Write the structure tokens for this entry.
Amino acid sequence: MNKNIGFIGCGNMGSAMISGIVKAEIVPSDRIYVCDHHENNFDKVKEYNVNTTTNVIEMVQKVDILILSVKPYVYESVISQIKEDIKKDVIVVCIAAGKSIEQVENAFEKKVKVVKAMPNTPALVLEAMSAVSFNDLIEEVEKEEILKIFSGFGKVEVVKEELMDAVTAVSGSSPAYVYMMIEAMADAAVKQGMPRKQAYVFASQAVYGASKMVLETHQHPGQLKDAVCSPSGTTIEAVGKLEETGFRSSIIQAMDACYEKSKRMK
Ligand SMILES: NC(=O)C1=CN([C@@H]2O[C@H](COP(=O)(O)OP(=O)(O)OC[C@H]3O[C@@H](n4cnc5c(N)ncnc54)[C@H](OP(=O)(O)O)[C@@H]3O)[C@@H](O)[C@H]2O)C=CC1
Ligand SMILES: O=C(O)[C@@H]1CCC=N1
């Protein structure tokens, strides 16, 4: 792609996307520009030979697609710093939880091309799940370019902007819940005698394989669960205990809390 892509903020999500974009060869690494206010934050991307700078003005003047990968509460101050210096027709990509397209447009105090996106950190291993919504200034060819970037490091779907809080709960934040489950599974295996390192491999490969089964067989997850549960077998004992201890309800309540927090961040 013949575009310069800039990132403001080289933290967990920004560096995962940079890594994904480089690994997927969406643009050559010399077309990626990264700005952060602390030099040592560039350590996360130093292996990729991207352009790094602490001078945000110098950076935004060079980029065609600008990804704002800072925390939501610094968006306004970052935008007020750069709004006079962005290139005409730059596409601004907002990945912040809770921030709306309208809030980003208002912060720039003019109509700018805005993409609201919600990726997740598995971008680092090219397995992100991302959602994007566009404002009305983004042209068809630009939509294709944005989709090409996000699909380079995982799956992407265009959604209505009002779904973004739900997306945050189901994919943006959800790797954290899954890591907690893997950690708990490994703890149990360690309790039962398995070495810790081996337990992480067994637990995470089981989660990975189960996810792949849902995605590739297109069977209902309940049907796949039933196929694991032998009559009077071991699995149904575990399933009974999960129901008794509120596993499903716990996930639903956690995701509701996540969704409500995202809504409150507007
Ligand atoms: N983490 C995730 O899984 C996901 C995050 N997001 C969104 O991505 C955004 C970034 O989150 P995340 O990567 O986790 O956060 P991080 O804190 O890890 O990254 C933010 C980076 O921006 C730097 N920074 C802060 N202020 C400035 C500034 N004024 N100019 C330049 N750089 C600055 C920070 O430096 P320092 O820390 O040294 O202050 C840090 O390196 C958030 O808006 C979040 O909602 C979206 C989807 C998933
Ligand atoms: O926790 C957060 O606010 C961010 C947004 C989605 C994942 N991490």
Remarks:
- The chain has two domains: 5-161, 174-264.
- The mean pLDDT is 97.
- Residues 5-161 form a domain with the Rossmann fold fold (CATH 3.40.50.720).
- Residues 8-14, 35-38, 41, 69-72, 74, 78, 95-97, 118-121, 172 surround NDP (ligand 1) (CB under 6 Å).
